Amino acid sequence: MTPDGRNEIFLWKVLIIRYVSCSICILHDSVSSVSTDHFPFQLIKHVNAELLLDDHIRENLLQVHLNGLLQTDDRIALTEITRQLKLENTLGDKVFGSFSETLQFLLEALKSGDQSSKPILFLLDEFDLFAHHKNQTLLYNLFDVAQSAQAPICVVGITCRLDVIELLEKRVKSRFSHRQIHLFNSQTFEDFIVIFKKLLCLDIIFPDQKFADSWNLQVEQLARDPTITDILRQQFEFTKDVRALQQLLMYPVCQLSEMSPSLSVSDFVESRKLITMDSKSAMLHGVSILELCLIIAMKHLTEIYEGEPFNFEMVYSEYSKFAQRKSSMQVFEKAVVLKAFEHLIHLELVRTVDGAGSRVQKEYRLMQMLIHPTQILDALQKYPQCPTDVRQWAASSLAT
Predict the structure, then answer these.
(1) Best exposed site among 80, 103, 234, 338 by fewest CB in 10 Å?
(2) Which residues contact 98 (CB under 8 A, 6 or more apart)?
(3) Is-contact 167 36, C-beta < 8 A?
């Protein structure tokens, strides 16, 4: 892929200029649509702008923009196509009571043209979602008109699904030209820093230009700060998605106030911690000591039996042995322990094994733990006033 995509997109441009009917699928990665100014929608917009510089094309090219998130079925899509092509005026007093009648009208309107007709460009964003429409009727008919060259139309599908062709039915696939343009993000860390600065910097049209200059200077300094650079490097290695970067920037920006009008490096550090926080580990900070003991008992059972399922009786036995060894630990009645165990199930820290019958008494129902032993140990490090005996029991490799 060239830096600006000109070589790959040139095919599409030539086909439109020469009024050649075709169908093309543009594939991009899931973050490319928001991570740079060129991939893929800005690139398509740029090519469109170049096409419209030609007076002949600008006067004759018709464009239809559809989105799989908005046009959720073929009926809605057909209505939108009719609206964008301004075919409502040709309906007159006709009333279409069914989808098939509307489709038939649209196809007749398309097929009534010839090679001298105005070319139509169909841009199908979220193309993979159109493949989930019932019978894929719309795709089949659009590809069929393009393949038969009855009228000069170009169907361009845009998606991040690499397997989108496999989603097409056999009859639809046979009408598709199988032309594919791959737009994959070649973003570097330097590009990521530029995006970081672009998201934070104030525009030149900001009312208070003096403040804008001061603010933008601070952003430049932040971009060179070693701590910020390290945080951005971690973010870049984890994901290049600009939406994730915006989420990282949200906390520091929200901390701004009259008393604190500048961005703080410590706020970026805190934001990174909040984003990378393990939700399961965070949930463990709120459980009771009894529930924590049951989780540790399940951890030991998982290690002893090498991941095999366990039941409440096994967990209670493990907990009882520990509680009786430690005189400082309060020993709860079995009914109380069972209630704590059920609460862990409601928190989705434990779940019933698939296939374990509901007729089985709940104390003997097979269960599996949904948290990793390392998450338990990490949570114990931050658990407020955790008893030393409990920490030591959790750190032991096997129950004794």
Answers:
(1) 234
(2) none
(3) no
